[in-house]
Structure formats: C-alpha cells, structure tokens
Amino acid sequence: MISDIKEIISHFKKGDMIILIDDEDRENEGDLVISAKHLTPDHINFMITHAKGLVCAPISSEIASNLNLSLMEGVNNEMETQFTASVDLKGEGVTTGISAEDRYKTIIGLTKEDAKRENFSIPGHIFPLKSMDGGVLRRAGHTEAAVDLCKISDHYPVAVICEIINEDGSMARLEDLELFAEKHNLPIGTIKDLIEYRLETKTPVSFISKSTIPTEHGEFEAHVYRDNNDNTEHIALTHGDYLAEEATMVRVHSECLTGDVLFSKKCDCGYQLDAAFKKIVENEAGVLLYVRGHEGRGIGLGNKIKAYALQDE
User: Fold this and answer.
1) Which entry of 73, 113, 137, 176 is 20 to 30 Å from 313 by CA?
2) What is the CATH number of the domain that holds 236?
C-alpha cells in the first residue's frame, strides 16, 4: 500500500528507512532510501543483504562542487543519473572500503561540512550521485527525491539509496515492492506524490529587482525573476504602455550565448533577438521574456560547441 507523502516525510525525518518508487514510464523501480543523518552500519548491511542493489549516496550539487567531484566519463545529459567519481574515506579505520562499516564511514565523511577532496580515495566503493538543482521538479529521479527529502527535513543534503532486486536477480516492481515492504515493515512512497507536495508548498518564482535599461532600440524596463526550482534568474524586458484589456505583444527568447553575444552564423538566434526588439518598439509596447539556462536547448555550452565541432568534420 502506498503511504501518504506527509507520512513518508515524517518517517524519513525521524530516521526510518523508506521505499521510494518512480513512475512506471521511467525506470519503474523501487529504492531503499534513508537520510545520512540517521545512517548506521546496520542500514548499509540491510541494503547489501536484502535489497542487493548498488549502494549510492545522493548529494546536493553544492557538496559535489565543494568536494570537486566531477561526473564520470560519459555522463553528459542531465536526465541521466549524475554519477560522480566513486570514493572511499581515508583514515578513520577504513581498510578495503567494501565492508558495511567502511561504507558507513565513507558516507558519514561526505556529511562533514569541512570535508575536502583530499579526505577521500578515488576510485572507491561509495558512488556519490549529484542531484540536479531544482530537485524532483527538474528531474524525477531517486537522487533528487532523496536530496529533496533531506532538505524538507532540515537534514544535511546527503542520503543513501539502494535499488531493490528480487531473489531471481530481476528488478523489483510494484507488486514485488509491496511484498518486500510488508515483510520488512517499511513504508512505500512515490516520487510523483513528492513532486505534487513540492508544487503545493513552494512558490515557483520570486521577483528580484527591476531597473530601466537604455538600449540601441530604446528604453526598456528590466524585471528580474528567480526560478526557485533551480535558482536560474530570468529577465522580462518591457517597453511602452500596455492595457490589461488589450492583447500584449510578447516574445519569448531562449538564451543563446553564441548567437546573442558572439553573433554566430551557425544559428539565427541573434537575428531573432534583434528582430524582436525592433518589432516591440515598432508596436510601441510589448514584452521580451529572456529565458536563461537553455543554452543549446538544454545541453549546455560545452556540448553545444562539441556539436559545432562535429558539424565541421
């Protein structure tokens, strides 16, 4: 039976292990999840013995950055699981790194606010997973769900997850997970319900600032807003007077550094932006919404330049 998401949050906050399942259209799997704040070696041993999947440690992007944990080779799409370099804690009695005790110590090492890259051996036996900024509202994965639960519970954003595998080696699906949960007295929650909870409890956009900006096309008023899901700041440029009862000219433009700033001939983004400014001024009123964080349709600047290089071959 699926538990209410508020019950799942309550269990997680007080240190219980939970099962989280994702959408059947995605991986359609269930993971054991627990906050690193309440982790013990026994929890690790339970995961190894009963769940039998890969023990991983979801961490916030800030922690990954602070520890200088780069993504593994081949991870180049934000919809993929963001595996970083695997780690073992140095010292603290850690030997091979594979025992439940050693893995526990390594994960606890990740929770230290003063932790540094040199505190860990690479590669190791714990696999940190970098959560996407914005959590499940940006990527509906177990990594983001685990870190979101930490943040909702006011825990340091490090968790532990492990896929649940059947006795025959196949992935456990909903019916299997319900039997597993009943056998081990564990609550089951869904990432879908966590997404709905976050949408209900978080203001999606915040106003930051505004100012008049003179441009070569005339004066525009810049209104800056922050997307609270991923902290990206977007700008709405307004020109002239427009009435609520009248249709307003609006242009939505996705950020394109190569086209908008470098005037690249490989796209017409710069031309479109210039044309939008001119059209709004000709109309004597309008809004240009400049959406940031969409470089290369979401693949990022580096991958966009790689694509340019492939086109030139």
Assistant:
1) 73
2) 3.40.50.10990
CA-CA-CA-CA dihedral for 120, 122, 128, 131, to nearest 10: 100
Q: Per residue in 64-82, pLDDT tens?
A: 999 999 888 777 677 788 9
Q: Are residues 172 and 32 in the same domain?
A: yes
Q: What is the DSSP letter of 293?
A: S
Identify the domain containing residue 231 by its residue range: 205-312
How many CB atoms are located within 10 Å of the residue 74 CB? 8
208-225 pLDDT, tens per residue? Answer: 999 999 999 999 999 999
Same structural domain, 76 and 20: yes
Report field, pTM of the whole predicted structure over 0.85: no
Buried b or exposed e, range 55-70, using 16+ CB within 10 angstroms: bbbbbbbebbeebebe
Regarding whether 265 and 125 lie in a shared domain, the answer is no
How far, in whole angstroms, is CA 52 from its chain's centroid? 25
Residue 1, SS3? Answer: coil
Domain finish residue from 185, 201, 217:
201
Q: Are strands 120-130 and 87-89 parallel, antiparallel or unpaired?
A: antiparallel
- Residue 216 · residue 273 · CB < 8 Å: no
Backbone angles phi, psi at 304, to 5 degrees: -65, -45
Residues pairing with 188 in the sheet? 2, 19
Residues 146, 33 contacting (CB under 8 angstroms):
yes
